[in-house]
Amino acid sequence: LYVSEYFSQSAQKLSFYSWYGNAKLFHFHVPEDTVLLRWLLQASRGKGPECTSMEITVHFRHGAPPVINPLGTRFPANATVRPSYNISITLSSAVQNTTFVNVTTPAAGDWFIAAHLPEAAGRIEVKGFSTPCPYMFQADMFVLRLTDMPVLEPGVPMPHTVVSPAKPLHVKVFVPKHAAGMRFQLSSCVTSEQRACTVRVLLGSITLPQSFQRSLTCTGSINCSLALDSPPWEKWLQIMVESLGTANASVSVEMLASFTVCRPGSTGSFLNFISLNQSQAGARPGAAGSSAPAAGEAPRNASGQRSSCLQSQPVVREDLDVVSVRYRLLNGPSVPVSPLSPTLLLLNLNTGMDSGGSLVVSLLLNKTSVSLANATVAACVSAASPVLSLNATRNCSTAFSQGYPLSVSTSSAEAMLIVLYPQTDDWFLSLQLLCPTGQGECTSAEAKVTVFAYLTPCFNDCGPYGQCSLLRRHGYLYAGCSCKAGWGGWSCTDDTKAQTVGTQNLATLLLTLSNLMFLPAIAVAVYRFYLVEASVYTYTMFFSTFYHACDQPGVAVMCIMDYDTLQYCDFLGSVVSIWVTILCMARLKKILKYVLFVLGTLLIAMSLQLDRRGVWNMMGPCLFALLIMVTAWVHHGAKRRHCYPSSWKRWVFYLLPGITLAFIAISVYAFMETNENYYYTHSIWHVLVACSVAFLLPPRDKHKKPWAWSQKLTCRYQICQNDREELYAVT
Length: 731
Known about the structure:
Layout: E1 2-8, E2 12-13, E3 16-17, E4 24-30, E5 34-45, E6 54-62, E7 79-80, E8 85-91, E9 96-104, E10 109-119, E11 135-146, E12 158-162, E13 169-175, E14 179-191, E15 198-203, E16 214-219, E17 224-229, E18 235-243, E19 251-261, E20 264-265, H1 269-281, H2 287-307, E21 310-313, E22 315-321, E23 324-329, E24 334-337, E25 343-349, E26 358-366, E27 376-383, E28 404-409, E29 414-420, E30 425-434, E31 447-456, E32 466-473, E33 476-483, H3 501-513, H4 518-527, H5 531-550, H6 563-585, H7 590-610, H8 616-640, H9 648-672, H10 678-696, E34 719-721, E35 728-730
Parallel strand pairs: 3-10, 7-29, 20-21, 21-25
Antiparallel strand pairs: 1-11, 2-11, 4-10, 5-9, 5-11, 6-8, 6-10, 12-19, 13-18, 14-17, 14-19, 15-16, 15-18, 22-23, 23-31, 24-31, 25-30, 26-29, 26-31, 27-28, 27-30, 32-33, 34-35
Helix pairs in contact: 1-2, 3-5, 3-10, 4-5, 4-10, 5-6, 6-7, 6-8, 9-10
Subcellular location: Cell membrane
GO cellular component, one term: plasma membrane
Membrane topology: Multi-pass membrane protein
């Protein structure tokens, strides 16, 4: 009666880790009644010489993407962090590695795998100069499930037989809503040889990174039982019974499951929902008459609330955007909390698209509402089932999960909890007033607590030094923070390596003011009457200055227009400046030179639109312009029958220094820039390129004076100049 199913996803190229967006995510759904889950993990690398041994880290989690911290940074305050379950896969001499991971009786629902390489080196690589080694990773899932798993009915003893130790018995029982406790009992355990048996019972399913599966070992024919507090509501609970006896003997057992149901108090949620609609839509006929019974029912419901085991407050889920939800209490933001029974709020996060953000729960105690000075309001945030015994224990544990505790008092009236990537489930907030021992008036005390609960993609929008990015894996969306200016951490709150404000201002000044080194090149171009070239250099200086002023990660930022526009104009100006400089050195005829100027600029603009960071967008125009220049110089040299340029001073004092500066600038740009030294290495690139342009611009024509305009007089005669014969005639 077993059915096997196989699920596969396409391989992804791994990246070195610097933030969560570098981790490659795989999303699978495990069906119900699965008794065996097997992951097939395949990792491979390229065969080139640039490929070295590498360690791949793979993280697993049920219900939500794994919360990982490969860099060892700090999480935000009040955030709950539980280490993820991970394994390492090493790619050494072998090109491919295959690893299997088995999980017995896995929990049904969403499972996530995240894989990444070690920490990024931080070097800025120019696309096309180096070929990175491709590391690929693929995860496949194999499940084995029962087609007809026996159902254990509550309160009804059910006999079953364990055929052999190699074939354990699997049954399931449905946990109803408002179940406060469950009791499992196993009796009449005998073997086929009429001997005392030994069996082990496993209740619940395995979840990662933490598993709360309960184990019970029964020996002999005596009854053995296990009591569970707060089992998961409205879910199937798997029970596996395996024999620990001899291999050939079967075992007969009798199982019984019973539940203790908690009766919730009346909250008048339907009447509150009607009044909410009336307040939003305005007064309607009969509104006054319908609100009167709600006021009259409050005293009658008070005695019922005192005798119930929990008080449920109605909560409205309001979807705002992707991975963005706000929870509104129909009775107002303040909820009454008593010591007799816990107050319960349901936070619905079971849509399957809510686990990629952060759940934030904030509590604020109204100090004037507490009649006891030393009283404390204890709260627990838990998934699948609520914590119903806050006065007995403060660890917020349920049958198969561990909740998150909170508390407020008159001395500390505020508390906040941040759940990173909450698992897909129904979440509950339980609140109860705990009074000091020896105070008899505690039963009549009450406290008012203001509750704010919401789901956000990134907590605090990643702060001033981070950017919240929405990531996608197929149809699943999740969010992550990309930090800047040396800040780190899950929400960019770790300032261990953060840049100071002075360093940020220095970086901005270096990257912007270094572009002023284009002023000598502009002056030389204007002096030598290269007005088109001077206009291109001015364009490059202007947009490079304001692009780097807008590109800064810290507080010293100024954007005069859209960032993408500034970046495109900066890249375009840089490449076109190199293009026109080399063509100007070729000494072409003016008409041909300007045609190449315009045509080359149009082609460069097109190539930058296709791939802005490709190395051939710069190297292609440079090489083509150098080919034109060399061809023109050879033509000039053959025509004059001597080397061109002919002056040794031109080579020693202008061309060789300019070429040297250009080669140093390219080396710095391509091989020396990192994230840490970017602000001064890129500034050096600005200075070297601008200085090389000033050296490489050719001199003006020998027979043309600077700004030698033709002189036109209005006295009925014209002075003519003959450059060749140097004779003047008056006509």
